[in-house]
Design goal:
The chain has 285 residues and is α/β, with parallel strands linked by helices. The chain is built from ten helices and eight strands. The protein has a six-stranded mixed sheet with strand order 3-4-2-1-7-8, with helices on both faces.
Length: 285
């Protein structure tokens, strides 16, 4: 017996998706997958295009969202804009890891390849705000990472707002495994502890879990996942002081998000640059 499934959905199974557990697949783009029991109807969540009965796990609504570019944004900055090789990624990561939230005075929108969720508009583009004559490559690099984290937070908050619980976040994909700085920023921005899947091949593992259930080796998907999935020992817990700064930056991000995304007509953005400077001065004090 064979069935077809999306790679991201089998990857979510292999990472341990369950009610209350959101799976973040972080790579060139991101795919966020969650489930909700059929016994609890899910609202038509605005901006979440993928809510389908049984699409991820049987007996559940599958909920899918994501960002059109994440790793591709970092690649564009390093390899296209800076004209550098892979080594610069590591160098900029090391430099950016030493910075405090808000220290650069920069803020970006992560729409370099449009916005998939929650605005669902491919004709949006990226924004970088707050540059001065002292702005460095590492500051821009970190700001682009932070922008993708703000986009991730917008998705989590939209899903939660419509009654779908997210109590646990498990990440998988190459970036989740390789970039500890990014994972810590995601934790600090979202306020969620970021766990990393124990398997580096979650799509293959999810397929194996489905096969094990069909073959009768396990009674169902929850039992198979309990036996076959895990998370790595290292987790990334949010830091309250860093999160406080990111809350201020996220409010500014959402102001830009709603203004450029067409949510807020006639938005007043006159104070955004000055607020970024104030946050920068406090971070550098």
């Amino acid at each position: 017996m064979t069935v077809g499934a999306f790679d991201a959905h089998t990857g979510a199974i292999g990472a341990g998706v369950a009610t209350g557990t959101l799976i973040k697949i972080i790579g060139t783009s991101t795919c966020d997958c969650g489930v909700s029991a059929l016994s609890r109807p899910v609202a038509d969540i605005p901006g979440i295009c993928g809510i389908v009965n049984g699409s991820i796990l049987p007996g559940c609504y599958g909920i899918e969202a994501g960002q059109s570019a994440v790793g591709d944004i970092f690649k564009w900055f390093v390899e296209v804009l800076c004209g550098a090789s892979q080594k610069l990624h590591a160098d900029l990561t090391a430099q950016a890891a030493k910075m405090k939230p808000g220290q650069s005075g920069l803020l970006a929108l992560d729409w370099n390849n449009g916005n998939r969720t929650i605005l669902v508009d491919p004709r949006l583009s990226g924004v970088l705000l707050g540059q001065t004559l002292h702005t460095t490559k590492a500051e821009v690099y970190r700001t682009l990472i932070e922008a993708t984290a703000f986009g991730a937070r917008a998705i989590i908050e939209r899903i939660r707002h419509y009654g779908v619980p997210i109590e646990r976040v498990v990440c998988c994909g190459g970036i989740a495994e390789k970039n500890a700085m990014l994972m810590q920023i995601y934790a600090d921005v979202t306020g969620c502890t970021m766990q990393v899947s124990g398997s580096s091949q979650t799509c293959a593992l999810g397929s194996a879990i489905a096969a094990a259930v069909i073959a009768g080796a396990h009674a169902g998907f929850p039992e198979a996942q309990a036996a076959m999935t895990s998370v790595k020992k290292r987790q990334y817990a949010p830091d309250s002081s860093r999160k406080a700064v990111y809350d201020r930056l996220y409010a500014l991000y959402m102001k830009l998000h709603d203004a450029f995304g067409g949510v807020t007509a006639g938005a007043d953005l006159g104070g955004v640059m000055k607020e970024l400077i104030a946050i920068k001065e406090q971070a550098n004090a």
